[in-house]
Write a structure and sequence with these properties.
Blueprint lengths: L8 E3 L3 E9 L3 E8 L5 E8 L9 H20 L8 E8 L5 E8 L6 H7 L4 H20 L12 E3 L6 E3 L44 H16 L16 H4 L4 H11 L11 H14 L19 H4 L36 E2 L1 E2 L21 H8 L13 H10 L5 H16 L4 H23 L2 H29 L18 E4 L4 E5 L6 E6 L3 E8 L2 E8 L11 E5 L3 E3 L1
Parallel strand pairs: 5-9
Antiparallel strand pairs: 1-2, 1-10, 2-3, 3-4, 4-6, 5-6, 7-8, 11-14, 11-17, 12-13, 14-15, 15-16
Helix pairs in contact: 2-4, 3-4, 3-7, 4-6, 6-7, 10-11, 10-12, 11-12
Length: about 575
């Protein structure tokens, strides 16, 4: 399943992605921080058309249009009880995969379904929450927008679980006219017959009206107050309540309201949210205890909040001002899986985050490619080693033997025989090897018989000279490369090093295998390092003091962006 790679990245030079919260059929939800608004947490809803595998072109275009539709719908229905769009765009993830995204406000209290599963709402709680939902839907309808997917999962709660907002306008219908085409969308249990995905009802071709949302809202209220979805009433009216609700003082009136709101024929339902809510709100008066002279004068009477029972406030209320969307149609921005045109896509970059949350304009990390083609080019090795051309095998063997024997004629004979055998179509290596072996044997016998002490001494001297040269090379390397790791026999010391410093300017900096190469380990700010080499904008360093100890298996040398190394 090709999931987007956005964790530990910055989208659009503004949104720092923290983690993935969930994945749906064709979208992924990420929690992020808005670096331009005091690290306010937001939601990035990313369209990923490949989550379910390869799509046909028509379905892909429908998904893209729905995504665009959600941005347009949210701009039309800005209301305190409707989720707000904070931004949008097109980008490529860390693997170069193109995607469209919306930035939405983050509701930290979860959704209404999670709240009601463990604790179904009583009438007072239902009136409190669903008045807010009804006000949001009434305002959307006044703006010619029908949600078409009202359900408990799409009703999100604030951190204190006192405010509810309607989310997911991806399948909303923005026109209420007769010419508006009705597509089959929604969730099976909550969708009315006129746009149910599997509907064969005689009313399936009815004009889409606000009563579609009223139908879904009624079944959502059933779920919230019973703790269970009305599966046995799928595509049919609610004709019974669970025993816990039916025995309540308001049970009969509640069933009558829900039954009318969920009838198959849209014309028989409530036609306006306001009418539906008026009947629901009257249920609160039904359960109000009436004072009695026979009752305990000190008893506490519990009544629903008057505000929950009052009329709906349909106006937009007070919402944070967001610039009007200038959403670029995804079709004009190129296919989701293809190359992103210039100036229409922002690039996702790796995150070298600082302690203060500020992200530098130029991070020192390579910018991710805006297309899969460019991604392939960048991920290739920077320098590909040229194909090594080996010497002819028999010549190579002869040269090796030449170092051990002073019979120069043996090499000449080997090459000569090899050339002649090659002309005859015989494998030359075989003949050359035989001749070299014979020559080597003869040289060894001659040397032993003559006992040439001069030659023995010269070879011994040569070996000692070679060992001295190797030792000098090692000592020189350690002296200039890393003074603290010099061999003890060198006897050379320096009083100070101008190449010592520490990691600075970022909370964590990647130690890489090579400039702009693979990240090996994070170096926390304050880690003591020594610069061994400089290449352009990169330092090759060795860690000389770890903060908190060296991680298990972590290397102590590699490359870092030179801007994050502060020399002493």
């Amino acid at each position: 399943m090709p999931e987007l790679k956005l964790e530990n990245s910055i989208v659009d030079d503004r949104y720092r992605v923290l983690r993935c919260l969930s994945r749906g059929s064709y979208s992924e939800i990420f929690l992020a921080e808005d670096l331009e608004h005091a690290n306010e947490q937001v939601i990035i809803k990313a369209l990923n058309t490949t989550l379910q595998g390869t799509l046909d072109h028509e379905l892909e275009q429908t998904l893209v249009q729905n995504f665009q539709n959600e941005a347009v719908a949210l701009d039309k229905v800005r209301h305190p009880h409707i989720i707000q769009r904070l931004g949008h765009g097109t980008a490529a993830d860390l693997h170069g995969t193109a995607f469209h995204y919306l930035v939405l406000e983050y509701m930290q209290g979860g959704d209404l379904l999670s709240l009601c599963r463990g604790r179904p709402l009583d009438l007072s709680g239902a009136l409190f929450y669903f008045k807010q939902v009804a006000e949001g839907l009434a305002f959307a309808h006044s703006r010619q927008v029908i949600h078409r997917d009202v359900k408990p999962n799409n009703l999100l709660l604030s951190s204190d679980q006192r405010t509810v907002k309607i989310a997911d306008f991806g399948v909303a219908k923005i026109s209420l006219g007769d010419e508006a085409e009705i597509t089959r969308v929604g969730t099976s249990v909550y969708s009315p017959p006129e746009h149910h995905p599997d509907s064969t009802d005689s009313h399936a071709n009815e004009k889409l009206t606000p009563s579609a949302d009223i139908y879904s809202l009624a079944k959502t209220i059933y779920t919230a107050m019973s703790g269970k979805a009305p599966h046995h009433f799928s595509r049919s009216a609610i004709t019974a309540l669970p025993e816990s609700l039916s025995r309540a003082q308001y049970g009969a009136q509640l069933l009558a309201v829900l039954e009318k709101a969920t009838r198959s024929n849209p014309a028989e339902r409530h036609q306006r949210i306001e009418d539906f809510w008026d009947e629901i709100a009257r249920l609160g008066a039904t359960q109000m205890p009436q004072p009695s002279t026979d009752s305990d004068p000190d008893a506490t009477l519990v009544r629903p909040r008057a505000a929950s029972m009052g009329p709906l406030v349909i106006g937009p209320g007070v919402v944070k001002e967001i610039p009007a969307a200038s959403f670029v149609a995804p079709a004009a921005a190129g296919p989701i899986t293809g190359e992103i045109p210039p100036r229409k896509a922002q690039i996702v970059v790796e995150l070298p985050s600082r302690a203060d949350g500020h992200v530098p304009e130029h991070t020192g990390f390579p910018r991710e490619p805006a297309s899969t083609t460019e991604a392939a080019a960048i991920t290739r090795p920077a320098l590909e080693a040229p194909e090594r051309t080996s010497r002819h095998p028999e010549i190579e063997i002869a040269m090796t033997r030449e170092a051990a024997s002073d019979e120069a004629s043996v090499l000449q004979q080997a090459v000569s025989v090899s050339s002649e055998d090659g002309k005859k179509g015989i494998a030359p290596a075989s003949s050359a090897t035989k001749v070299i072996a014979a020559g080597t044997t003869r040289a060894l016998v001659n040397n032993l018989s003559r006992a040439n002490w001069t030659k023995v001494l010269s070879r011994t001297f040569g070996l000692l000279l070679l060992m001295a040269f190797v030792g000098l090379t090692i000592s020189t390397y350690y002296y200039f490369a890393d003074p603290d790791r010099r061999p003890p026999w060198s006897g050379l010391r320096v009083l100070s090093s101008a190449n010592d410093g520490s990691i600075n300017g970022a909370t964590n900096v990647n130690l890489r295998s090579e400039p702009a190469g693979e990240a090996l380990v994070w170096l926390p700010q304050g880690t003591r390092v020594r610069v061994l080499e400089t290449r352009g904008n990169w330092h090759r360093i060795r860690v000389i003091q770890w903060l908190g100890g060296q991680p298990s298996g972590a290397p102590d040398a590699g490359w870092v962006d030179r801007r994050y190394v502060k020399l002493d």
